[in-house]
Write a structure and sequence with these properties.
The chain is an alpha/beta fold. The protein folds into 2 domains: 192 residues, Rossmann fold (3-Layer(aba) Sandwich); 149 residues, Rossmann fold (3-Layer(aba) Sandwich). It contains 12 helices and 13 strands. It has a 7-stranded parallel β-sheet, with helices on both faces. Strand 12, helix 9 and strand 13 form a beta-alpha-beta unit. It starts with 7 loop residues before the first strand and ends with a helix.
C-alpha cells in the first residue's frame, strides 16, 4: 500500500442526525469537501450511520454504512457504536479494502479499533463546573483524557480550544490541529433593517448560551430594540426564558422564532438591527462570523474564543453584567460602515474549503 495515497477514512456519524447547530454545520460543510479532496488524492470517505441517519445531504461519492448504533444516552452510544465500527472495519478488511483511519467528533470514543483514529473536539463544556455537575465532569474528563491520549491527531475548531486541550491534557502541541469553522455556507443579502428591526440571537436556547443577560439588558434599557431569539430550545429552556421575560416586564419585546429553515438565515441577518452572542461557553461561535460576513453589527460576551473569532470590531461586554450588555448593544447599533467592512474582511478569511484541506492534511499525517 503506497503511503502517497490519501487514506480511506471511516467517519462515525451516529450523532449526525441531530438538529441544526454548530456541530451539524461543521460536518455538513466539511465532509463533502473533505471527501472530494480525499478522492483527488486517491483516498475515500465513508460514513457509519446510526439508528438516526445523517440529517443533511451527502454526495454520492460518500459511502454510507447502516448500523444500529444508538445516539443516546452516551454510554449506550459508546457500546453500540463500538460494536458497529469494529464490525465495519472487519468487513472492510475481509473485502480487501481496509479503512486506514477512523474519525469521530464525539465522546466517548470507541476503543480496540486496530487502526489509527482522530477526533474533533468542539469545546470542553462538559468539563466546566458552570455546565455540568461533579459526576458528569469526572466521567467526561476520563473519556476525554482517554481519547486524546489514544488519538493520532486531535482536531480543535479554534486556537482557544486547542490551547485548552494542550494545557489540560498535556498533549504535545503538534498533535492538536486547528480546523476552524467558516461562514461561506450562505450568500448574504443586502442590508435592509426596518426602523423597528430587532436584536438577533441565532443558536440553540440552552443555559450555556447565557440568554438571561439579554433579557435583563432589555429591562435596564427601554430604548433598546426588541429581541428575536432564533433557534430550537433544549429541554424547558424556552418556558424558563418566557417566565423570566414576564417577570422582568419585557415579554412584549421578546419573540421566540424557534427552529427555522436554513434558507431563512440570509434574510434574518439582512433585517437584524444587530446580532448578539452572550455565551459563557463556546468552542467557536459560527453566528459571529456569519453576522460579520453579512455586515451586521455585532455584540459578544467577552469570552476568549468569541473575541478570537470575532476580531477587533465586535462590541464586547462582561457576560454576567446586564448593564454592560446593554451598553455593548448600544455601541453595536452605532457601528460605522467602515467597521462593518473591516469585520466582513476578517470573516472572509474563514473558508470551508480551506478548513476541509486542513482536515484532510490532519488525516494524512495521522495515518503516518
Amino acid at each position: 500500500m503506497s503511503r502517497a495515497r490519501a487514506p480511506r477514512v471511516l467517519v462515525l456519524g451516529t450523532l449526525l442526525g441531530q438538529p441544526m447547530g454548530g456541530v451539524r454545520r461543521h460536518n455538513a460543510e466539511l465532509l463533502p469537501r473533505a471527501a472530494a479532496r480525499l478522492e483527488e488524492l486517491g483516498g475515500s470517505l465513508t460514513v457509519l450511520e446510526g439508528q438516526e441517519p445523517v440529517a443533511f445531504p451527502l454526495p454520492a461519492t460518500i459511502e454510507r454504512i447502516a448500523s444500529n448504533a444508538a445516539p443516546r444516552p452516551p454510554l449506550s452510544r459508546w457500546r453500540t457504536e463500538g460494536l458497529a465500527v469494529r464490525h465495519a472495519l472487519a468487513r472492510a478488511r475481509d473485502s480487501g479494502k481496509p479503512f486506514d483511519l477512523v474519525h469521530t467528533g464525539h465522546l466517548p470514543a470507541p476503543g480496540r479499533l486496530g487502526c489509527p483514529f482522530t477526533i474533533t473536539i468542539h469545546d470542553l463544556r462538559h468539563l466546566d463546573s458552570r455546565h455540568a455537575d461533579v459526576r458528569k465532569r469526572l466521567a467526561a474528563g476520563a473519556f476525554a483524557a482517554s481519547a486524546v491520549r489514544r488519538a493520532a491527531r486531535i482536531v480543535a475548531v479554534s486556537e482557544t480550544v486547542r490551547g485548552a486541550i494542550v494545557e489540560r491534557f498535556r498533549v504535545p502541541p503538534a498533535r492538536v490541529v486547528v480546523v476552524p469553522n467558516a461562514a461561506d455556507h450562505f450568500e448574504p443579502l443586502p442590508r435592509e433593517p426596518a426602523p423597528d428591526a430587532a436584536i438577533l440571537y441565532v443558536g440553540h436556547l440552552e443555559a450555556r448560551k447565557n440568554l438571561d443577560v439579554l433579557l435583563r439588558a432589555l429591562a435596564l434599557d427601554a430604548k433598546l430594540p426588541s429581541l428575536l431569539l432564533a433557534g430550537a430550545a433544549k429541554g424547558a429552556e424556552e418556558e424558563r426564558l418566557r417566565a423570566l421575560a414576564r417577570g422582568l416586564g419585557v415579554d412584549a419585546r421578546v419573540r421566540f422564532l424557534g427552529a427555522f429553515d436554513d434558507g431563512e438565515l440570509p434574510r434574518l441577518y439582512a433585517r437584524a438591527a444587530c446580532v448578539v452572542l452572550p455565551s459563557r461557553i463556546e468552542g467557536f461561535g459560527i453566528p459571529v462570523i456569519e453576522a460579520a460576513r453579512a455586515r451586521v453589527p455585532l455584540a459578544i460576551a467577552e469570552t476568549q474564543v468569541l473575541v478570537e473569532v470575532a476580531g477587533p470590531e465586535a462590541s464586547v461586554f462582561a457576560p454576567e453584567d446586564p448593564a454592560a450588555c446593554a451598553a455593548a448593544l448600544r455601541r453595536a447599533l452605532s457601528a460605522s460602515p467602515a467597521a462593518l467592512d473591516r469585520a466582513a474582511a476578517h470573516a472572509s478569511t474563514f473558508l470551508w474549503e480551506v478548513s476541509a484541506r486542513k482536515l484532510v492534511d490532519a488525516w494524512r499525517a495521522a495515518r503516518g
